[in-house]
Fold this protein.
Amino acid sequence: MAEGKPHHHGNLRAALVEAGVALVHRDGPDALSIRKVAAAAGVSHAAPAHHFPSLLHLRTAIVAEGYRRFTASMETAIAEAPNTPRDAALGACLGYLRFARANSGLFDMMFGTTDCIHDDPDLRETADASYAVLARISAPFAGADPVDTELAIWSMIHGFASLAISGNGMHDAPDLEELFLRIFEALDLSAR
């Protein structure tokens, strides 16, 4: 193949999404463009149109991929936790925090104001799967309404993760996980 010519990918859609995730990771969500993603994937600027008719469609696919990775991060941390409901909840929170810190641009796209197609089936499925982790780890705890526990845990970890990546100085804390553990310990979670 002549140098500089675009090459064919076995799975162009996946390659474009991966290139988009890498671009967001390196340069932030505002840097995302179809031309930049095509160049990073090694294809012509017209090639993405076969899978993504617009930047909005590409953003939606990248956000869906973010939710897949987010869910995997929480599930991995849960699997590493001791086998108690409280430890599983803490594990999910630590997986949440680790994902946010390692993928701040993607996290911003997922939970920020990035335009995407909210009724896209893949996005709905991946977002619902991540929420299902939260619902599952919240279910064992006492309370008038399990949704209240979900909201308390989600608010706590999402707020903490958002502050940790916001650049307000908290991201410089020597051990954010240890700091979060102290905050988590203050939450009154009693298994049913």
